[in-house]
# Entry
Amino acid sequence: MKFGIIGTGTIGHFHAEAIRSMDGGSLHSVFHPSGEKAAAFAAQFGVKFFSNITEFLADPELEIVTIATPSGAHFDPAHSALSAGKHVICEKPLEITTDRIDQLISTAAAHGKTLAAILNRRFNPAMDAFKVACDAGRFGKITSASCYVKWFRDQAYYDSAAWRGTLALDGGGALMNQGIHTIDALLYLAGPVRSVAASIACLAHERIEVEDIAVATLEFESGARGVIEGSTCSWSQNGHPARVQICGTEGSVFLADETFEVWDFKDEQAQDAAVRNTLMRGNQAALGANDPKAIQFVQHQRNFEEVVNAIHHGREPNTSAKEARKSVALIQAIYQSATNGGVKIIL
# Structure
């Protein structure tokens, strides 16, 4: 299938590299309102370029559009692409409110097109093993499920673009921007949350409207309790990995980025030895903890391949809009709780 990208920044380049490496898709075109930026991007990747979005979307060869604009600027291009009869894969968060996501879901359904998100932390061997263990009930009764994203962004990061750190275009800070993939992983593994109480603050940055620290306590529908902690003010020389930790009456697993710190079950199974031999944490660098450009594109590649496969087989992708909505709904509830003094919010 032929892909077109809306956006020529760092994320747009990330999408282009992933698409060029994937099976089942090829990079066809790019759109940016600046003809100069669109042309430069097109020259780098050898594709068609457009500075008029109507002309970009009218191209009959274009089949899938990926959205690589700032978070709060996803709705208009996604809505336009769906309305033009194109499938859409949108960078995280799919949109910064559930209301906007619901409108996009309705538009996709009306035009019979697939709307999917980038949920790239779902696509690595460690996550596959973690998900299999959860679905097989190996934890017994899950009692604790938490995630921690203790990252660092300096002031220059927020000052590098006028939209960074704004509620209108970032939608939030350490959770909505940096932590959302790990929050998605937590929900993917542990299931839905029943209620949340939270506190957020901006402690270490200037001239931003969003949080650089957030802590929330969770009650899951399963009865498990947990914590979400997100930060962009936790300095480290090499960066801390994003962690998801699940414990139950018969097992505990601690995931750090794409490898395990703990893989421990009461009832050993044959596959456990392979996990310990190949997926335990050594001295891997943290992915994107201090430098967002350090993230590898292979998970985006697998994400794109999953969506193409789903389209071909007429099914919903693993990263459907409905899946992407879950983390945004939880983060909205966290912000609502924090804004109201930490009151418990029922989802």
